[in-house]
């Protein structure tokens, strides 16, 4: 009986090691897979890496969203290939617009007004927040303290206004850009 228990104990230790090695292998595979950039559709707009353009434009990030390893945005350039480091980069413009839409939906649910959303989105430590709120409110035609919902029309107006403020009127999100991104939600 003692010999059987010893054999069983030895067997369990071996299996625990194998399971641990398998787990480590799976994690390594997932890390390596996360570094493969998403496939780019040549029919889609992309400004990635073009010099002389506003930062949000050359990153395909019209909302100038900050980089975070926690954000697993669709179409995100892997960190090891991100040439900006501080801000997210996307393989196509529509993925950057999509990320902005996802964030706006979350912020509308959480904060509810343009004023409260922009105070979190563009804090005083980095922006002239009052001017930003005024610009977005004026551009959308929505009063700064009015409660808003994340319906398609409101998302479109906010997305276009924020991208215009972040990247300039020349590179603001267009109706077509919005539609391409909205289809990905």
Question: What report would you give on this structure?
Answer:
Helices cover 54% and strands 0% of the residues. It contains seven helices and no strands. The model has no long low-confidence stretch (mean pLDDT 91).
List the main descriptive attributes of the protein structure presented here.
185 residues
What percent of residues adopt helix (DSSP H or I)? 40-55%
How is the main sheet built? none
Measured by DSSP, the beta-strand proportion falls in: under 5%
Number of strands: 0
Specify the overall morphology.
Answer: elongated
Task: Give the termini separation.
Answer: 61 Å
> Radius of gyration from the CA trace?
23 Å
Topology:
Blueprint: H1 2-34, H2 55-58, H3 93-111, H4 114-121, H5 129-140, H6 152-167, H7 175-182
Kindly summarize this structure in a few lines:
It contains 7 helices and no strands.
